[in-house]
Amino acid sequence: MTPGGVAAALAAKAATATIPIVFVIGVDPVQAGLVVSLNRPGGNVTGITSMNSGLAAKQLGLLHQLLQRDARFVVLVNSSNPQIRLAVADVKAAAAAMGQPLDIVTAKTNREITPAFKEAVQKRADAILISPDPLFSSRPVQLATLAARHAMPAIYALREFAESGGLISYGSNFTDMFRQAGTYVARILKGEKPADLPILQATKFELVINLQTAEVLGLAVPPSLLAIADEVIE
């Protein structure tokens, strides 16, 4: 099983054409070149995707609802991610549909994350969306700390960010995704072939709001948001 994102899944696929591979990723596996079809993957690869890159519209909408005003958004992306073009196009379309300005800042290494936040401030961003990427998902404390340091409301795809001091997270429940991936591993061990197991898509999404962070940022979270949150950290 490959939990390290699309790069790890592609590396595993390149390494073997016979050993079964079950991935857990956040992008479209067909567009990423992992499988030929969602219904019939073919080859030795199958798995589950959260399609997190398609959640930009929802995430920007939540930020807009939280700020309760027009805002200039910025999105942080990993410029070395081979899926960056799709991720940027998705978030740009979401911002355009909302009629809100959007800028892009990039970081391809850990050292470039801090300068990226400084660039976001220079662009006069009102809020930042952290794109789902292994580079960022492995550093929730660093990103939450930088957002707080620059007094910038931020939304993330994983609940771990809100638990680490981030303001708000919205995305698929990866615990549930790994449970589903585990069932595929068990079925393969019992003799089924990855080629015959359709790609699963995450069905459980969660909204987590950190009220402590909201208070530090001077934000009053609307009751409408609190009402739909899966968890509120107080």
Question: Can you put this structure into words, describing what you see?
Answer:
- The protein is an alpha/beta fold.
- The protein has two domains: 6-49 and 173-203, Response regulator (Rossmann fold, 3-Layer(aba) Sandwich), CATH 3.40.50; 53-171 and 206-233, 3-Layer(aba) Sandwich (Rossmann fold), CATH 3.40.50.
- Helices cover 40% and strands 18% of the residues.
- The strands form two sheets. The chain has a seven-stranded mixed sheet with strand order 4-3-5-6-7-9-10, with helices on both faces. Strands 1-2-8 form a three-stranded parallel sheet, sandwiched between helices.
- Strand 6, helix 7 and strand 7 (168-172) form a beta-alpha-beta unit.
- The longest helix has 16 residues, at 174-189.
- It is globular and about 55 Å long.
- The two termini are 36 Å apart.
- 41% of the residues are buried.
Q: Give the neighbour order of strands across the main sheet.
A: 4-3-5-6-7-9-10
What is the CATH architecture term of the largest domain? Answer: 3-Layer(aba) Sandwich
CATH topology of the largest domain: Rossmann fold
Order of helices and strands: HEEHEHEHEHHEHEHEEHHE
What share of the residues does DSSP label as strand, in percent?
A: 15-25%
Secondary structure tally, helices: 10
Number of domains as seen in the coordinates: 2
Instruction: Indicate the overall shape.
Output: globular
Could you give the distance between the termini?
36 Å
Please tally the β strands and state the result.
10
